[in-house]
Write a structure and sequence with these properties.
Layout (H helix, E strand, L loop, with lengths): L15 E6 L1 H10 L2 E8 L2 E9 L4 H11 L10 E6 L11 E5 L12 H8 L12 E4 L2 H6 L6 E6 L28 H18 E11 L2 E3 L2 E3 L2 H4 L5 E9 L15 E8 L14 H4 L4 E3 L15 H11 L5 E4 L6 H8 L3 E6 L2 H12 L5 H8 L8 H6 L31
Parallel strand pairs: 6-15, 7-8, 7-14, 11-13, 14-15
Antiparallel strand pairs: 1-4, 2-3, 3-5, 8-12, 9-10, 11-12
The chain binds S-adenosylmethionine (SAM).
């Protein structure tokens, strides 16, 4: 290819497109009052994020659908790409600018002249992202659109890149609604590091990320999550064993794997703050092995049991309220736990179906309050070591066969939760 054949880079013009679009999808988004995030990047640097009501794009999308399906849509046929540009929403007063790069004028050569003029109207009028929403989109792309230092705690579990072939007696093959779980391992790990680093950026100093993953084997070679977690910017504060009690695969190549890992990752408050604040003892006594059964739910292949995100959030925030994030939120378990604990939340998932279920669960969150309360009831110090020593109950040895669990069975009524008005 000689120089003149080189394709010219496309300029930013506030456009976007939908793949495999249908009249049914148009109607659904219109009825649901969907709002879209339209973002522009130059060389990976975010320039702007606009939040646009879907309604303002309908006329343009409708005319493309009419052209594609003059006789009406036949089953199985899709409009491969339906596009829009800022001209479609420029007169809509409801458009919000959620982010404008403070150096955006350095990028104007990459903007069309008319779009540059459109962006100018938002200078000094940026309104950061609204909390307590659930967004449909790719985790990394959406995270890039979020501001620095706003989240207190993230609890998340990404797809594990298991090649969708794990099938056992007790646990079905994991197949997600939209995402495929079969990536080149190197690319997968690079993407996970990028997501971890974006989460680091958006987390407040002193904030935490609980990152759930598991050890996998590919052709006999062990792939340990610590390999890539330790390459991210986070301080690895602890590796927690999630003892699920049930194995996904019951072959005898190894002892049955009944655990997963949860990495408690920490963002230092200042350089050299590698230790952070001490946990309140009532949380610390829950130990580094969490015995929690996996969840069974017909609507998603592997949602969190709600006790798990509840434990993470409550342990680090204690009675404080904060902002909770889950960039792979599935059907929204972390978000429901956050809401019931009185926190603000923000969720992202690539599947519209899961996000719709998450929204429904959030509306009916009260139905899950008892399980959250039961988890909180475990966070209690019945007797301090000093008191146990004084009463002769602690002789420096743990009695054989005394289950740790029995030390923490406390009636639910000892704890309280914010009540929704
Ligand atoms: C292990 S599940 C999380 C389940 C969640 N903790 C819950 O309680 O429902 C992983 C989720 O990641 C979503 N996902 C996969 N690829 C994604 C991507 N690139 N961006 C955002 N979400 C993605 C899947 O749709 C799936 O719901």
């Amino acid at each position: 290819m000689n120089r003149s054949d080189k394709p010219k880079p496309k300029k930013l013009n506030g456009d976007g497109n939908f793949t495999d679009f249908t009249p049914e999808r148009l109607e659904k988004y219109r009825q649901e009052g969907v709002r879209l995030l339209v973002a522009g990047f130059v060389d990976g640097e975010l320039v702007y994020v606009l939040e646009v009501p879907f309604e303002s794009l309908c006329d343009r999308l409708q005319s493309q659908l009419d052209k594609a399906f003059p006789q009406g849509r036949e089953k199985g046929k899709y409009l491969r790409s339906a596009n829009f540009s800022f001209q479609d929403y420029q007169d809509d007063e409801r458009v919000e600018c959620r982010y404008l790069n403070p150096q955006w004028r350095q990028f104007v050569q990459w903007c069309t002249e008319s779009f540059q003029k459109y962006l100018e109207r938002f200078e000094g009028g940026v309104r950061p992202m609204e909390l307590n929403t659930v967004m449909v989109g790719d985790a990394l792309t959406v995270l890039k659109t979020l501001p620095d230092n706003f989240a207190d705690v993230t609890v998340t579990s990404p797809p594990y890149n298991k090649g969708e072939r794990d099938k056992g007696w007790l646990v079905d093959k994991v197949v997600y609604d939209v995402a495929n779980d079969r990536k080149d391992e190197e690319a997968y790990q690079a993407e996970q590091i990028a997501v971890l680093n974006e989460l680091y950026r958006v987390t407040k100093p002193g904030g935490s990320l609980f990152y759930n993953h598991k050890i996998r084997w590919v052709r006999g070679r062990m792939l340990h999550p610590y390999e890539w977690v330790s390459k991210s910017r986070w301080i690895v504060r602890q590796e927690i064993i999630w003892y699920r009690k049930i194995a996904a695969n019951l072959r005898g190549w190894r002892f049955w794997q009944v655990e997963e890992r949860i990495y408690w990752l920490y963002k230092p408050r200042w350089e050299g703050d590698t230790i952070g604040e001490e946990l309140n003892p009532r949380h610390a006594l829950l130990t580094s092995v969490w015995e929690i059964l996996p969840e069974r739910d017909q609507r998603h292949p592997n949602p969190f049991p709600i006790e798990l995100p509840t434990r993470c959030i409550y342990s680090v925030l204690d009675e404080r309220k904060g902002v909770v994030l889950d960039p792979y939120c599935g059907i929204g378990t972390t978000l429901v736990a956050a809401k019931l604990l009185g926190c603000d939340y923000l969720g992202i998932d690539i599947s519209e179906t899961y996000v719709a279920i998450a929204c429904e669960r959030l509306e009916k969150a009260e139905a899950e309050r008892d399980r959250v309360l039961a988890e909180l009831a475990l966070h209690v110090v019945r007797k301090t070591f000093k008191e146990r020593k004084e009463s002769g109950k602690w002789d420096h040895r743990l009695k054989r066969n005394q289950p740790l669990q029995s030390l923490r069975q406390i009636p639910i009524k000892q704890v309280s939760l914010p009540i929704e008005e």
